[in-house]
């Protein structure tokens, strides 16, 4: 709470509310609008702004212009598949029960986004939805701060707190006719941010009741998720950035050694099944020993159990979620930044099995090509800052092209060029 002195009276003001007691909404809109103009003209932090809004403007300005419109990330079947599998789909009845009345009155919109700011559900009266669609406030659109600027659901995710954004407090001009209140929703078991619940409408939303209502709705959803527990999950395999794969079946972790990790990964990318000879070639190349392969597969079957691993051919009975599959799907969808976020490192980096080496190179090459093709300075920099990317000459050259005045990039390109030239000379016959 912030202390505000009015004569002899001291009021405690909630910094997450858009208006303080006694504010004239129309005057506040004009005042904030002028501050927004000064900010865009170069004034770093207008003194009349709420700190949460001023800080959000600064974050937004680093990514977008004030006339930007939120992009569409998901559509049609991709959107339907994604949101039906999202944890927040289980609490949509709660959202509709507690906030659906507002969405049906013709003046408000109920919206739910995921942890990346993608709108999954946007519901309300058709006429209100048409108005919101003019600024791409529609299912599948990306409303985090980096893509849509300051707004209640995007900023609630950024600061992990319920808040209101009032009219001209929005960074993007197309959104400034709206006022919204949003609250983040968390996984009660892990604390992980799942997304946010939002109510959008007119200036009358800038009151303490709307903020309390969305906050209470978020808490009710979290309480429900705590009671029902996690949904049944397919077996999950994590093999990126680690020498031994981690398998979880029904939430129970199973420890795997190096060879069993390699076999499991190979089986996940061949759901149709593989013969013992095929797996042996993937593991050992031409130096394959059929007896050794059969022994490894027999031990793996004892670890996994016959309900998971079948034979003749060897295949996994259940569908398996893998981290390498997640990265590949994100790349297929053109979502390079999310693929980079989901990529903790190369596939089983210590493995020299030919089949694993091929998979590793294929995924790395796809991700590198997508990053280079994006010409996104932040993505290139993220790759270079990772342990495996520090000596990537091509990526340093791309970064130097994007940041021509950065002396560190120029020096690093020169040093790596000399180093690689020396290595070639040393191995030349």
Automatic annotation (TrEMBL):
Pfam families: GAF. InterPro entries: GAF, GAF-like_dom_sf, OmpR/PhoB-type_DNA-bd. It comes from the Bacteria. One of its GO terms (biological process) is phosphorelay signal transduction system. GO terms for molecular function: DNA binding. Residues 251-316 form the OmpR/PhoB-type domain. Keywords: DNA-binding. This is OmpR/PhoB-type domain-containing protein. The lineage of its organism: Bacteria, Bacillati, Actinomycetota, Actinomycetes, Micromonosporales.
């Amino acid at each position: 709470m912030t202390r505000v002195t009015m004569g002899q009276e001291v009021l405690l003001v909630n910094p997450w509310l858009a208006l303080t007691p006694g504010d004239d909404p129309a005057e506040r809109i004009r005042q904030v609008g002028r501050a927004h103009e000064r900010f865009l003209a170069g004034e770093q932090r207008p003194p009349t702004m709420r700190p949460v809004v001023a800080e959000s403007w600064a974050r937004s300005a680093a990514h977008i212009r004030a006339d930007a419109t939120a992009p569409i990330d998901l559509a049609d079947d991709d959107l339907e598949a994604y949101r039906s599998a999202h944890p927040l789909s289980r609490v949509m009845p709660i959202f509709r029960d507690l906030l659906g009345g507002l969405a049906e009155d013709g003046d408000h919109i109920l919206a739910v986004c995921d942890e990346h700011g993608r709108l999954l559900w946007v519901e309300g009266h058709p006429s209100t939805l048409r108005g919101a669609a003019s600024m791409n406030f529609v299912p599948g659109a990306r409303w985090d701060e980096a893509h849509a600027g300051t707004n209640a659901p995007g900023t609630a995710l950024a600061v992990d707190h319920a808040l209101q954004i009032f009219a001209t407090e929005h960074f993007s001009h197309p959104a400034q006719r709206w006022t919204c209140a949003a609250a983040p929703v968390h996984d009660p078991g892990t604390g992980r941010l799942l997304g946010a619940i939002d109510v959008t409408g007119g200036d009358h939303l800038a009151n303490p009741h709307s903020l309390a209502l969305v906050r209470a709705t978020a808490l009710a959803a979290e309480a429900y998720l705590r009671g029902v527990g996690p949904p049944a999950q397919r077996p999950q395999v994590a093999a990126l950035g680690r020498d031994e794969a981690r398998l979880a079946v029904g939430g129970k972790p199973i420890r795997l050694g190096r060879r069993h990790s390699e076999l499991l990964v190979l089986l996940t990318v061949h759901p149709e099944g593989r013969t013992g000879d095929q797996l042996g070639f993937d593991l050992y190349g031409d130096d394959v020993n059929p007896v050794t392969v059969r022994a490894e597969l027999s031990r793996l079957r004892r670890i996994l159990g016959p309900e998971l691993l079948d034979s003749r051919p060897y295949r996994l009975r259940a569908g398996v979620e893998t981290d390498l599959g997640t990265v590949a799907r994100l790349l297929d969808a053109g979502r390079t930044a999310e693929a980079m976020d989901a990529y903790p490192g190369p596939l089983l980096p210590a493995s020299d099995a030919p089949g694993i080496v091929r998979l590793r190179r294929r995924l790395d090459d796809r991700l590198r090509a997508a990053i280079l093709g994006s010409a996104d300075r932040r993505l290139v920099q993220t790759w270079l800052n990772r342990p495996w990317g520090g000596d990537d000459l091509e990526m340093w050259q791309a970064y130097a092209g994007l940041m021509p005045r950065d002396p560190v990039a120029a020096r690093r390109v020169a040093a790596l060029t000399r180093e690689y030239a020396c290595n070639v000379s040393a191995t030349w016959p």
